[in-house]
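Now for a concrete sample entry.
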Amino acid sequence: MKRCDSASHNSESADATPDPALDPALAGERLRTHHRILMEAVEALGEGFIVFDADGALLFCNQRYREMYAPIGETWQVGAKLEQIARDTARHCVGITDPEKIEAWVQTRLETAKQPNRQIEQQVANGRWLRVHDVEMPNGFVVGTRADITELKEQELRLEKARQEAETLAAEAAAANRAKSDFLANVSHEIRTPMNGVLGMAGLLLDSGLDPKQRDYVEAIHGSGEMLLSLINDILDLAKIESGKLELEPIAFDLRALVESATAMLAFRAQAKGIELATQVAPEVPQSLLGDQGRLRQILVNLVGNAIKFTKRGGVRVEVATEGPVGEEATLSFRVIDSGIGIDEATCARLFQKFVQADSSTTRRFGGSGLGLAICRELAELMGGGMAVTSDVGVGSRFTLRLTLPVVERAQSCTPVRCAEGCRIESHGPRERPSLKVLLVEDNKVNQALGVALLAREGHRTDVAGNGLEAIEMIGRSAYDLVLMDLQMPEMDGFAATQAIRARLGLSELPIIAVTANAMKGDRERCLQAGMNDYISKPIDRRHLIETIDFWCGGAARPGGGRHAGLQRLLDRLA
C-alpha cells in the first residue's frame, strides 16, 4: 500500500511540473537562446553570411557581410531586394561606373544567384578579394557565404609574378646562350679558316728542302699556330660543356691502340727534352671497350702533354690497369706519372678549377690557359668517371682517371671504326690507295692551294670550285670519286649544294665530306642530315684527311666512276 501511495505521490508531483513545450514563456526564452547561439556562431565564422527568400528578399546577413561590402553594406535592411543589393554592390563596392555595364553586371548576378552551386572570385572597392559561394535550398531560399581570400590572392599574384620573372630570366638566359653560341661559332670559323692556311702551309714548308735556319723559323710558326689552335679548342669545349651541348659519341674501340696513338703524337716532345715516355697496359685490361674514344684520347693527350711540359729530367709513364673483376663492364684506372716539378697541396686542391695553374703569375714559364685540366675533369664526369691528383714538390705528380666502360667482344678482324674526328681503330694490313679524282669546293684562295697541294702529295688529281653553284655545274660535266665540301660560301653554301647533288643530279653514292671551320655542337649532325658522308674540321690534320679519304674511297674502282669501298665497309658493318 505504501508503495502505491508513493507511486501515486510521484505521479502527482510529475503532473505538477510545467511542460516547456506548453509554456509560451519558456518556449520563447529557449527560442531566443537558440537564436542567440546561432547568431554568435554565424558571426564567429569570420565569413560573410546572407540569406534571401524565394522572392529574392533579404532575410538575414551578418555583420561580417556588411563590413565586406562597405560602405553600402551597412544600409541593407531586411526585405531589401537582391536586384537592388546587386546594383549597390556593382556601383559602390565593385567600382563600376558605366550605367550599361552596371545593368549588365546586375543581370548576370540575378541569373547566377539561383544556380545550384555558384562560386566565383570578386574584388571589391577596398581592394579586398572575396570568394562568393551561393547555394539554392530546396525551398527556393538562397544561402550565401563570402570569404576574404585577399592574402591567398596576393600570394598567387606574387607566385605568378615570380613565375613570369623566372620565365623572362630563362628566356633571356636562353637568348644569351644562343648569342654566345653564335658568337663562338662565328669566332671559331673566322679563326680556323686562316689558321688552316697557316698550319697547312707551314706543314708543307717543313716537308720541303729548308736550310736549318729556315726550318727553325717555320717550326716556330707551326708551333705557335698549334698553341693557338689548342686554346681555341679549349675555349670551344668549355663553352659546349657550360651550355650542355657537349654530347658523347660512344663506339667500340681498341684501348691499346688508343693509348699508343695518344702517346705517339707526343713522343717527339719527350725526345726533344731528353726524357723517357713509356706506356704500360696491364694484361687483364680488355682489348675492346665501348666509349667515346675521342674524348678519352683528348684527356690522355692533355695529361701526358702537361707531364712532359713540367718534367725536366727522368720521364713520364702512362699506366692502365683494372680495378676489380672484369665482366660485362671494366673499371679502369689511367695513371700518368711524371718526375717533374710537382705541385703543392694547396694548388692540388683547386687544380681542376677553370683558369687555375700551378704558377698563375704573368711571368710563368710554362704558359697555358689553365683550361685543360678543368675540361678533362668535366669530360671524365660526363663519361661517369672522375679524376684525382697526388703530388710532391720536386718529386713529381700522379694524375689518375677512373672510368667504367662496357666490354666488347673482340672481332676477328680489326677494321676502321668511325668515331670522333681524328680517331680510328686502324687495320694493320697493306692498304690500296688508288689515285682519285677529287673536287675541292672552297672559296678561300689559300685553302684552295693548300687542299690541292695536300691531295697531290697522295697522288690525287684535284679540281677546284669556288662555291656550291660551280660545284654542281662541274659535277654535272665530269665524274668525281670524292667531293671535299666547304660549308660557308657565297652564291650557294655547302648544305644546299650537297642536297642538290643528291636530289637534282641523283648521285646518292658519291662520297661528300664536309671540310669546314665550323666546329660547334650540331655542325656534324647538320652535315649528315644534308646528305654528307663525313665531317672534317679546320685546321685540317693531314693524317686525318688521308684516313678519311681512305675510309670512304679505298679499294678498287666501281663502274661508272667513284670508289666506295669505305662506304660498303660501313654498310656491311651496320648490316
In short: The chain has 18 helices and 17 strands.
